[in-house]
Write a structure and sequence with these properties.
- InterPro entries: DUF2905.
- It holds the Pfam family DUF2905.
- This is DUF2905 domain-containing protein.
- Keywords: Membrane, Transmembrane, Transmembrane helix.
- With about 70 residues, this protein is mainly alpha-helical.
- The chain has a domain at about 25-68.
- The chain has helices spanning about 1-20, 50-65; strands spanning about 35-40, 45.
- It has a two-stranded antiparallel sheet.
- The longest helix is centred in the N-terminal third of the chain and has 20 residues, at about 1-20.
């Protein structure tokens, strides 16, 4: 159990460093077809449906590979 927590922590730190120091790698996130972005004069609603489905599929594949 502790091994998985350490791996998850290292992965999150790595992802955080990538987002901080190389934001151009993730400029596509939130701009996929199917992501909802509604703007009005005073507010904005953003629902990244397609991006979240893509992340879910990738994480499912990765976790299934580790559990076998």
């Amino acid at each position: 159990m502790s091994r998985w927590l350490i791996i998850a922590g290292v992965a999150l730190v790595t992802l955080g460093l990538l987002v901080h120091f190389a934001p151009w790698l993730f400029h596509w996130f939130g701009k996929l077809p199917g992501d909802i972005n509604v703007r009005s004069d005073k507010s904005q609603l953003f629902i990244p449906i397609t991006s979240m489905i893509l992340i879910s599929i990738v994480l499912t594949i990765i976790l299934n590979l580790f559990n076998r």
